[in-house]
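Section: Multi-chain targets

For targets with more than one molecule, the full set of components is provided together so that the structure can be written out for the assembly as a whole rather than chain by chain. Components appear in the order listed by the source. The example entry contains four components.
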Amino acid sequence: MKTDAMSHDTRERILQAATQLFAEFGYRGTTVAAVCRMASANIAAVNYYFGGKDALYVEAWRSAFLASINRHPPLGGVSPEAPAEARLRGWIRSLIERISDPDSCDFEIVHMELANPTGLLTNAMRESISPMEKMLAQIVGELLGKKKTPENIQLCMMSIQAQCLNPRVLGKRHQMLKQERPKAGPEPLSCDVEKIVDHVIEFSLAGIAAIANRKSPATPRRKGK
Amino acid sequence: MKTDAMSHDTRERILQAATQLFAEFGYRGTTVAAVCRMASANIAAVNYYFGGKDALYVEAWRSAFLASINRHPPLGGVSPEAPAEARLRGWIRSLIERISDPDSCDFEIVHMELANPTGLLTNAMRESISPMEKMLAQIVGELLGKKKTPENIQLCMMSIQAQCLNPRVLGKRHQMLKQERPKAGPEPLSCDVEKIVDHVIEFSLAGIAAIANRKSPATPRRKGK
DNA sequence: CTTCGCTTCAAATGAGCATTTCAAATGCCA
DNA sequence: TGGCATTTGAAATGCTCATTTGAAGCGAAG
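Its structure, encoded as tokens over all components, is:
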């Protein structure tokens, strides 16, 4: 067999370059020429090793996802037997840290895929997201106690996931809108991941508790109208 | 002068078609040819009327944004003198309804612009988003009372905005991942905008209250670690 | 009727890009 | 060393797309 060192080397270099570029410019925005240039490989290499741009895209995401999940295990090391609140803390911490990790390109790619789907990652994403959502559903269900209905679980999950996912989005927005005035006074959103984690946990626990302790049987219908 | 009917008609048709297509496929994903085909105009018309694809893009977003903000006034009709809680309800309701309005294409475009920026909308977006954020900052500051620090305001704003923006994102994700199994049992996320609005309001008020009533002077640092 | 703007049209131009091709290089086994 | 499979290289192919061009169409003013 061929040497691992050289032979797999260019394949690996291409994969790495592709991950970075796809994360920054998206599928349509990156050219195989650019990937090969960054990887110091010939233009034909990506077809030789991956069969085409499409397959490279899928492979790049998959490898980025595995690397990312490897650095940040779900639940953040909290035992699955721990009480629900501790597991929620772990879940939130894990997701936010994973998203904020500058080496984790997989969420950038997912974000673009959601905004402007190529359709190439559908299967790969389904497999990877589903288990994490199941865990969260279980945790939220326990915390809701008697108020555990499918609808309440869905809504609370939405609130939590939204808070975890958006810091990166908002960060990008601020970075984008900041262009013109480089000195915009205080930092728009604190870059301190730890602070964001603590805040999301506190905010979410309070939100869930409010619903769990809700008196009225029906949801409080619009009052401001 | 020429008739308004015919002459401005094709310009208008192009703008409308462009808005729809840009919202569905993004800047890079829509071709000038497709826009003209949908608008029943000649391929040269977009350069004639707008000067190029770039300018058409900006103009399409601007018109979509104006139309959207017109249908859904900020604060949702609540008086600026109303108490903070009522204004928060109005703000949240307005944003979620605007985002969920199937005729509002502007948020689709913004979403893509955030995920995969063209850089063409930076100025236009800055002008439009800033006032709404200022309103929210003021409201949240009032609700935080003594705990009103720039950091707390930033974090709470993030939580609220995230919850408002994400229903559409999650909806898209479910729609995307659903492809394979057309009958996936119960609806993934309730399409009932009213329910989402009520939930986000309840969840957010509880979250803000928890921070406003926080005992410890410092944020509760990581405990699960 | 003719001329003059404004608008539409079909075809052409030219750039960017993914993919192919085939020749050269490189390392491996006998 | 010489054949053989794997890998790399540079140029070519063929496609899509934004933009340009120059020739009509067309209503109104002279």
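Chain B has two domains: 1-62, 72-212.
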